[in-house]
Design brief:
Helices cover 49% and strands 19% of the residues. It has 329 residues and is α+β, with helices and mostly antiparallel strands. It folds into two domains: 172 residues, no CATH class; 120 residues, LytTr DNA-binding domain (OB fold (Dihydrolipoamide Acetyltransferase, E2P)). The chain has a five-stranded antiparallel β-sheet with strand order 8-7-6-10-9, with helices on both faces. Strands 3-11-12-13 form a four-stranded antiparallel β-sheet, with no helix packed on it. A two-stranded antiparallel ribbon has the order 1-2. Strand 4 and strand 5 form a beta hairpin. The protein is elongated. It starts with a strand and ends with a helix.
Length: 329
Amino acid sequence: MSSLTLTRSLYRSPQNGLIFLLVIVLFFEIIGWAISPENKLYTYSSYQTLFSYLKNLFLGLLAPEFCTLYIMVFLIDVFHRFLGIRKININFSSMIKYEAAFLPLFFISFFLFFPITLHVRFLLREFPNYSLHRYIELYVFQGFTLQTYLMYLPFVVLLGYILVNASLVKDFLESGNSSQVKITPIIPTTTVFIPIEPPTPALQEAGVEKKEVYPRVIEAKTGTGDVYLKLDECYYFETDEERYYVVHPKGRFRVMKPLSVLEEELDPLHFFRVHRSYIINLDHLDSYIYWEKGKYIVYIKTAAEIKEMMMSRQRFPAFKDALAANRSR
């Protein structure tokens, strides 16, 4: 596997990150006791009982960070979409570049989630005795400071990279399951000929009536004139700025027929319209995988590259039927 498609399925279920958040909070709590036990002991004694201390730990620290978790998941997902990151190459340099790309996001994310987290913390910790004076003095003035930002930064970076890499691991493990179907070549088998009776004229006539004739070549335009291309060699048809093209081992050529006409004329045993802008040759299908929000990615293997196309959930049942018919022919 030279590359990994990022489905980001972990980000569609942010509750999966709750365990990571809990571990990080406990980790920082342990570090706090190890580095500064006097301060921690003073804080603990101010709550008088263990229950009060644990209650404040949950309501004042852990619960508000649920908002941080969900906002971080949202920001990481949007960051992927904004940069168009759909796959990464599995090598050291590509992984380092991918990981480093998130540092600016983690540095500025504090200003996006902290106003929400701060107010949630105030509402939970001060309930039911809310005080405007305490809100301004302890939360606003002491919250929006450089010290608070620097205190939050290690937590945010650690949480962010745990989410990023957990999603990577999840995508890697899922890349080998049945959602990504690799098309294997058909193994030649020995053909057994069974003698049959010649069909009667009536059956011959019925067979001729039912048999459909599909074109074997298509006319394409070049700079020097027209050329006829074998359809079984064509990788796919596409539309671009209201023009129609066919991609062939010899290159990309313009065709005059729109995809709606080609969809009706081409042999459905070999060609399928996966998108309003694409008709693919199923013989050149490399693989397909579930993407997100009911969409799939279809990969067509050409001589120069593996072309990536989107396919909607509505087309998927017909696609599976067409693929099954193509592979069983």
